[in-house]
Amino acid sequence: MEGSPDLPPVDPNVESTEGKAGKAAGSGSGGVRLEGVTKQFGDFTAVHDMDLDIADGEFFTMLGPSGCGKTTTLRMIAGFEQPTTGKVLIDGTDVAGLPAYKRPTNTVFQSYALFPHMTLEENVGFGLKRKKVSKAEIKRRVADELERVGLSREAKRKPAQLSGGQQQRVALARALVNLPKVLLLDEPLGALDLKLRKGLQVQLKNIQRDVGITFVYVTHDQEEALTMSDRIAVMNAGHIEQCADPETVYDRPSTTFVAGFIGVSNLMPAVVKGSNEIEIADGPTVPSKDAGQFSTGEKCFAVVRPEKLTVSLPENAPGDQPGVDGIVESSLYLGTSTQMAIRVAEDVQMTVLVPNASEDARQHLPGGGAKVRLNWLPEHMHLVAESEADQPADDQTPTETVTEGVN
Question: Mean pLDDT in the chain?
Fold first, then answer.
């Protein structure tokens, strides 16, 4: 990333701006708490009775598909929407009813909304000027924030002279210069190309650590959430399905929705046979450390990630690992790996990712129609119940009929 005009330079020998304005924005508590928050648009409920605690200084991400209620939740924290019922607390104070400009928050949107006739420093300092902050203070704070985002040399330029990534960093500096307790970010990287977006993910996380304030981030991009977040709330149909650190959300999803939305998962129908074992897809009985969380005879799903599976001919399969038999249906070359689709039951297809360690190894993978065995380590299988929100209520209004503020 070094040398890219879109990304701020990273030099370990240069003193961090933390000693200047770095921790100023983080002074005071920036914790956010939602208590029983519901938001309705007519007969449609976008957010259902939500309870949520976001710690001061946390990089917290609300992740979910379009229409899940994540943007509506962010807008209620910002003050652009008011909850139908419930409380929104920032720093322990109930701010429900307060307009956005009276809350200790700033919001960064996907659209940069920069003034085209102003220079970068004028754009960043605009809010401070309106608040009648002294010229000396404006100059100091603007310089600090432009340095933080790596745009000090471009301070006199106009927005039209910048790339999309640079403009987004100006928008970030403009928000941080106001020293908010909480920074709200509504898919700010969504309009950027993939390579630039990946670079800015790292830079954004570094900036958050530098300023030390609470970031509440909204995205539908799973990789983005896993890369930057301290914790992730996975949302579906106005509910939080799981709220945990990235490793837990990925390795131990709590519902079928989370397992299917975060990356790629293999979901195998299963029945609990006892405290330590399950029967998979009317097939083999295998050990499970999660079985004790369910009742004997209860139906559930066994989840195994594609990269945790090994595939081999039955005569070469490890005998000390649980597994299932199947038939290869297709193989897809992905460069670093080969993706195989393997049918293990009439209505169950498994996806396997096999690293392409060598050309010889790839050439010796079983071909279409071959009988194979899939194996996994016991600790790599996790049991989940079916998501309640997977089956919408009969009277639920389709999300596409609500066009404003529901995402």
Answer: 86
The amino acid present at 285, given as its one-letter code, is T
Report how far apart the first and last C-alpha atoms of the chain are (Å, whole number): 32
Residue 192: what pLDDT? 79
In percent, the amount of the chain with pLDDT more than 70 equals 88
The region, left, alpha or beta by phi > 0 then psi within -120 to 50, assigned to residue 396 is beta
**DSSP per-residue codes, 235-265:** EETTEEEEEE-HHHHHHS-SBHHHHHHSS--
223-267 pLDDT, tens digit per residue, is: 999 999 999 999 999 999 999 999 999 999 999 999 999 989 999
12-21, 35-44, 282-291: the lowest-pLDDT one: 12-21
Quick: pLDDT tens for 367-389: 889 999 999 999 999 999 876 54
CA–CA separation, 169 vs 114, rounded Å?
Answer: 11
Cβ-count burial 147-180 (b if 16+ within 10 Å, e if not): bbbbbbebbeebbeebeebbbbbbbbbbbbbbbb
Q: Are 377 and 320 in contact (CB under 8 A)?
A: no
Burial classification of residue 70, based on how many CB atoms lie within 10 Å of its CB (0-12 exposed, 13-18 middle, 19 or more buried): buried
Q: Return the axis-axis angle of helices 164-176 and 120-130, rounded to nearest 10°.
A: 20
Q: Are 33 and 53 in contact (CB under 8 A)?
A: yes
pTM of the complete model: 0.83
- For residues 311-326, one letter each, b for 16 or more C-beta atoms within 10 angstroms of the residue's C-beta and e for the rest, the string is beeeeebeeebbbbeb
Q: At 93, phi and psi to the nearest 5?
A: -105, 130
